[in-house]
Amino acid sequence: MSRTEQARAILAANDRGGYTVPTDRLYPFQWNWDSAFVAMGWATFDADRAWRELERLLEGQWDDGLVPQIVFHAPSDDYFPGPDVWGIQRMPPTSGIPQPPVLASAVRFLLERQGEAGAERARAVYPKLVLNHRWWEEARDPQRSGLVATLHPWETGMDNSPAWDIALERVPAETRTEIRRRDTGHVDAAFRPRGIEYQRFIHLVDLFREAGWDAQRMFAQSPFKVADVGTNAILLRAERDLLALAERFGSAAECAAIAARIAHKTVVLSGLWDEALRHYLSRDLIGGTLIPVRTSAGFLPLFAGLHEHAGALAARLNGWASRGLALVPSTDPDAPSFEPQRYWRGPVWAVVNWMIATGLAEAGDPQTAALVRSETRRLIGQAGFSEYFNPVDGAGIGGGAFSWTAAIDLLLGEDQGA
Ligand code: GLC
């Protein structure tokens, strides 16, 4: 099988009927941001299936606009916490928190790629995207600061990033739900979040369930509240993509509202640049400070269209590469919290690389963009379609035959004509 055929075969094998699981067993449901990337991967060879992916994700959308992190389309015993722990009464069942909103960007990608043939499907999902972006503003930025708050590390998609360590310590480790982890039965525990982190993750789920999943109560009561630079950058990118869709499918009032949010968010996101660390940082909204740890999320303002510091960010990437590190480590390899094998505390993730490379190319740095892309291809070529990669020795870690890794490989393979 050629490499392209292998990547397509992974998507096909993980297809559960219009939606794609991230990988067999470890993640047996539909995950939000995985699906957005996976749809772009499907779009390289099957436009109809690509749209289905997003339509099935939107089957999980709540009336208030939330597009949840997980849609539990079919029962499975392989994952904890399942629908019973979330306790959300709807069909299909879902979790009760978001994930980084790549969705509008995926819709625009599919539409531009497919041209007129995709217009009807884009038009049909457009109002749901508008509702979702309003949800972000009302539920997560009630004071209109310009930055949305994250109330659970899982919402960032970068579950155990060291950027959350201090903020997470405010969350008690007691849980009312009995913890029955499944992940460590599928994958070596040394590569996964630690037990204490997991208890705090579940404490927050217990708290939100008891708040009835009411957005205002969750915002008011959560002991974990950060403005994640990754989520905010991805949302700003999504707002720009939504504006392009609104110009075609929306009203003048919608266009004006989105344009106003873009203007405000651009200014506020720029304020997450830290001159001492020369990196974009997340803000701890309870402690009131920038969180002084460089992570791969801090490169994502490039993807949002903030190009002012592209030179400094590219210099850091090139510096790491010249020391023989694979790009892009999820945590600064010089940080004390760096662990090259543990999930979001060091390993390289293909989807993050794809966003960073896109941002670098748009910022006018095709060389560093090409470096990040070729590094991603090299890692996947050597180690397979793993969930993530060790930046020190290039080993593939976590789950195998991973959907979003395959999707990114398809996108990058096209760029490189392979
Ligand atoms: C993990 C990752 C998250 C991803 C999910 C499914 O929870 O941290 O980003 O969406 O797995 O792949």
Structure description:
It is globular, with a radius of gyration of 20 Å. The longest helix is centred in the N-terminal third of the chain and has 22 residues. Helices cover 48% and strands 4% of the residues. It is mainly alpha-helical. The mean pLDDT is 97. Helix 3 runs antiparallel to helix 5, helix 11 packs antiparallel against helix 12 and helix 14 runs antiparallel to helix 15. The relative contact order is 0.12. It is built from 16 helices and nine strands. The strands form four sheets. The protein has a three-stranded antiparallel beta sheet.
Topology:
Layout: H1 3-14, E1 30-31, H2 32-42, H3 47-58, E2 70-71, H4 83-86, H5 103-114, H6 119-140, H7 165-168, H8 183-186, H9 195-210, H10 215-221, E3 226-227, H11 229-249, H12 252-270, E4 273-274, E5 279-280, E6 283-284, E7 289-290, H13 310-322, H14 350-362, H15 366-383, E8 388-389, E9 396-397, H16 403-415
Antiparallel strand pairs: 1-2, 3-6, 4-5, 6-7, 8-9
The structure holds alpha-D-glucopyranose (GLC).
